[in-house]
Every structure is written in structure tokens, then in C-alpha cells.
Write a structure and sequence with these properties.
Helix content: 40-55%
Largest sheet: 5 strands, parallel
Structural class: alpha/beta
Strand order of the largest sheet: 5-4-3-6-7
Strand content: 5-15%
Mean pLDDT: 83
CATH class of the largest domain: Alpha Beta
Number of helices: 14
CATH superfamily of the largest domain: Nitrogenase molybdenum iron protein domain
Distance between the termini: 72 Å
CATH topology of the largest domain: Rossmann fold
Low-confidence stretches: 1-48
Length: 323
Amino acid sequence: MYAAFITSTGNLSLQANARRCPLALGLLLALMFAAFAVGCHTKPNPATAGREFTDEIGRTVRVPERPTRIVSLAPSVTETLFALGLGDRVVGVTSYCDYPPEAAQKEKIGDTQRPSIEKIVALKADLVIASTASQIEQFVRSFEQVGIPVYVSNPRNLDGVLESIKHIGDITNVPERAQELSGKLAERINLLTSAVDLASSGKRPRVLFLIGSEPLITVGKNTFVNDLITRAGGESISADQEADYPQFSLETAIARQPEVIFFQVSGEKLPARLKETPAARAGRVAHIDDDLLLRPGPRVVDGFMQMVAQIHPYLHDLRKESR
């Protein structure tokens, strides 16, 4: 190898002189060592390249400088990526990711709880963004074993949505777009909360938010929806529940006398016995678009606006003013 190196560089006379001159021999060895080092140089390890972030459940994640093949494992994440103008970088989404319409055209990698790791690897993903709502933490280790970084988004309230948008903008290297989007959403939220403050008389109407009716499933105190109810000027009748989605008996729901009922489940009817509640007697039972309230992404502000309008129906120009 060394002789070949000397021949290739045309330094034949140096080889001959090296036998007679220790200085020349030292120079020869230095040249050969340098050539060996260059020949054995390896590419940077992808696991140590890029930028390092702390995700929203406290994990350290290293992502490429500019991720170009992103897989989303939650509808809220998909909506955020498209709202940031990153639709062209999204290569895979879940079967539930249907907004915006362009998202439905992306490659499907399974549902939120059972994504296909093989398909994600085949898509040559360089970043996976998951949500704790999708219960994807159990798959993180599998993705890491194949060298795909996973960032977990975990907004727990309305302010958390804005922060999560900025975090996703940071890891995808579009921080200015994220700041602009979160700023616009913050302006709308502030306008809505100001209207609520002006409209509130000090008494918060009791609110029942139904996710399921058979059995009766509502929301606990630590959920995203409970935060929305509070911010909208209401008081959830299940705000004392530790479980995120507790099961209520009809007797308990009736006894707590809800004054507003949000019936989230599309296509189902309000259970007959709940028609005995103040909310039903006053005609204050409202359906709200599931996708707006249960997806903590940019459109949640639209859901928040609908909730405010139902709790404070006399705010007639709310929809126009909060746009």
C-alpha cells in the first residue's frame, strides 16, 4: 500500500533517499500516515449529526438540520405541519389525518396507535413527530433502533398548543413561520378571552362535555378540553375527576345539574334522561365539531370560539370579530 502511494504521488526519489537520510524517512512516514488517515475517514454518524432538542415529555432528541422526510403520527401534528407550509416535506400520515384535504393524499402508515414501523422505514423518514394523545411512546424505542428520531408533542392546554406549534417550527427549521402562526392564534385567543371577561357576571355556568353516551364518558380536570371550558367561562361538572376521561352515571350527571351540554359524539342522540337537565330544558345542548376540539392544533381556536359562543350566546358578533 505504502509503495503504491509513493508511486502514485511520483515521489520515487523520496523512497530511495529515505534509506540514507533519517529526516527523509521521517517525512516519508508522516506522508504515509496522513494518507492512511484520509483513506480511513468515515462519514459523520447520523445519530450525532444535526441539532439537539428537548421534546415535550422531556426526552432529548437529535434531528437533522433541515428534516425533509417527515412522518406525522397524529392529526393535530399533521395540521400544524401543513399550517406551517411544510406539506411538501410530509411523506407519511396516519389514517385519521384528513385535514387539510392535501393531507389525505399522503402515504398512510397505519393509525395513531398502530403505525407500521416497516412502512415508515421504507419511506426513508428522517423525523417522526408523535403525540402523547396517540399513545405512541411505546414505539419510540423501535424507531430509535432504526435511527429515526422521534419528537413527542404534548400540549395539555390552550397555551400549550401555541408553544407546541413553535417547538415544531424549531425542529423543522421554520421558526419564523411558527412565530407568525402562533402570534396570530394568540391574538384571536386574547380577543375571545377578553370578550368572556366582559360578558361574565362572576357565575360560571355548569358544563357537561360528553365524549360518549353509552356509557357516559366525559372529561377530567387535567384534560385539554377542561382547560377550554374554563377559558370559555364555564365550569365542567367533572372537573373534580382525576381520570382524563372518566365514566359517569346518568344519575351523577343529572344530579350535578349542567346548564350547558356539549354533545361531541356525531350521529348520536342525547340520552333521554339528560333531557331532565337545566341545559336540555333551556335548549342549550350543542354539537361541536370533534376535529376542532379534540385535535390540539391550529384549528382548536375555531373550536374554542364555538364553545365561547355557546356558553355566552349573547355575544352575537363573536365569530366575525375573532377571525
